[in-house]
Amino acid sequence: MYDATPFLPQRGGLPGLRKAAADCRGCPLYENATQTVFGAGTGHARLFLLGEQPGDQEDLRGEPFVGPAGRLLRRALEEAGLGDEQPYVTNAVKHFKFTRSGPGKRRIHKAPSLREMTACRPWLLAELHLVSPDVLVLLGSTAGKALFGSSFRVGEHRGVLRPMPDLNGGAPGVGGAADAPRGRLLATVHPSSVLRSGDRETAFRGLVADLAVAAGALG
Question: What is the pTM (predicted TM-score) of this model?
């Protein structure tokens, strides 16, 4: 059974989590990835951005959202009025999953399975409990499925603020009912889908509009 729970520390806050995650063997994805790509940001962030998994550049640099999708996301945040926020940014899965293709055997992103997302979920729950953001933004369907299961669809929730549901039950030693996140969540598309869109400008404007809802909630 894939499960990261045995690798979670009992204390140490976000630095302790980040250090422990570097040695996570909760699923086989670590075998081919360069390194664990843990979340980045402070424990006092009001805004929590949750993506899918690290990409090629993130895997090499060890930081989330530093590739093309990350650059587009930063531009969208700026245009949505969130440029002054210092968000906590992470992914549902902490290792890069890929296949190799083409003459140079370039590494091509491959979506994580529900089994892999479930294995990595304890890290995400721990991050959420420690940061306890005012607004959680789900970037794409994988982010939503990692928290709410395979039935989650971005289109059913997109751009609408909803109360944070009960997320207890997967991060021993780092959270409980007393300190569960009490903010709100909002779903939107992943910035990589904007880059793949046939009408990139319209897709980008849609992402900005969704993020503007989060900006309004933060005041």
Answer: 0.92
